[in-house]
Amino acid sequence: MPPDRPTPYSPDLFDPARYVMCESVGYLMSRARNTLAHSIEQEVSSLDITHAQASCLIMLSSGRASTVTDLGRELNTDMGSITRLLSRMEKRGLIERTRRDDDRRVLDLSLTPAGHALAAQLPAVFCKVMAKHFRGFTADEIETLRGMLGRVICNNSG
């Protein structure tokens, strides 16, 4: 096999007879995600927002999401939770919701000036948390991890 191609998946890697929860890649990924989320929650609390609100602001400001459905898909959250979250953000003057004229079922979302100002502060917060948790990692290790996580995500879409 050429050296630039990954070794094919081996079913032995995920043999239920050898499963140890605390050593499971899925468990470790979940723990890592929860640890990062907790740190972000602590950092954004000084801005008087939650991690979920920060994620919405980043998704909207980056153009990654522009509707309630987009946010639900990107954040893997049910529409009811997203709607309640957006209601709180709208009351705080961070976002605006507008029904589309061509399809009244679709709610377009946009940031208010206050939402833009808050979203502009978030990359520094997220980078601070990432720098703390990835202390001691090389740039190559982070790129490798980014590539692997991207592959895990892509494997789910097929």
From TrEMBL:
Gene3D superfamilies registered for this protein in UniProt: Winged helix-like DNA-binding domain superfamily/Winged helix DNA-binding domain
Signal peptide: none
Presence of keyword Transcription: yes
Keywords: DNA-binding, Transcription, Transcription regulation
Annotated HTH marR-type domain residues: 22-154
The name this protein goes by in its record: HTH marR-type domain-containing protein
This protein's record includes keyword DNA-binding: yes
